[in-house]
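Students often ask why inverse folding is considered easier than folding. One informal answer: many sequences map to the same fold, so there is more than one right answer. In these notes we will look at a single instance of the problem. The structure comes first.
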């Protein structure tokens, strides 16, 4: 992540769409115990950490992200907590064992099949993975939706995501669409930051802000046909 991108996202509540109900749903599907061991892979600044801790109030949470400043923000967000271990590192190389690996909008950096293969040894017996992945919700996505996801050519419908899950020798337990409300709340905060930074932005930051504005505007045209699908999966 470049300095300009971090300037945009620093201090925001989230680095991508989502809401606590998504975590609660995944925890219920996975049948998490109160003392579950959880990993937040690609945790960003820890937006989902409070909900993950609430899902396992007697458990332990390991949070990992490749960008150390996000880990620093995570600690500022939650304060000292003996239940939490957080570090900057490679989320493909998890140690475990974990009862749930949670990855919100991050697994696609590795690839669904590749990431699940990496994570399988880190799962405890009966453990599951919950991840969100870009998804078409129609067989005929609009040109606007295709333009919005042009930089992610791997995007498919739910059946394509399930095929990548099965290619890793996992099976899909349940799926849930990330709500439009979660996307809208995320982009409201990003828009406010873009507007606040614009008057004093240098050339590098201005380019990032321009790209972000295109993304925000594009989502409005793409949201009917696409979004994130949250999948809970387990080894087959």
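Output (designed amino acids):
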């Amino acid at each position: 992540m470049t300095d300009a991108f971090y300037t945009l996202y620093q201090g925001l509540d989230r680095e991508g769409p989502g809401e606590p109900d998504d975590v609660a749903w995944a925890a219920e599907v996975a049948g998490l115990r109160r003392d579950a061991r959880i990993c937040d892979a690609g945790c960003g600044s820890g937006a989902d950490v409070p909900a993950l801790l609430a899902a396992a109030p007697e458990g332990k949470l390991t949070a990992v992200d490749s960008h150390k400043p996000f880990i620093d923000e995570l600690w500022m967000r939650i304060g000292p907590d003996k239940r939490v271990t957080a570090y900057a590192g490679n989320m493909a190389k998890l140690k475990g064992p974990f009862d749930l690996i949670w990855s919100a909008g991050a697994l696609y950096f590795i690839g669904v099949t590749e990431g699940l293969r990496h994570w399988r040894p880190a799962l405890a017996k009966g453990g599951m993975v919950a991840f969100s992945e870009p998804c078409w919700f129609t067989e005929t996505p609009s040109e606007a939706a295709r333009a919005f996801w042009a930089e992610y050519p791997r995007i498919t419908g739910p059946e394509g995501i399930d095929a990548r899950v099965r290619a890793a020798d996992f099976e899909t337990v349940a799926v849930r669409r990330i709500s439009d409300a979660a996307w809208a709340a995320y982009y409201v905060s990003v828009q406010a930051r873009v507007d606040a930074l614009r008057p004093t932005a240098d050339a590098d930051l201005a380019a990032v802000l321009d790209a972000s504005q295109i993304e925000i505007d594009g989502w409005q045209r793409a949201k009917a046909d696409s979004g994130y699908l949250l999948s809970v999966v387990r080894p087959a």
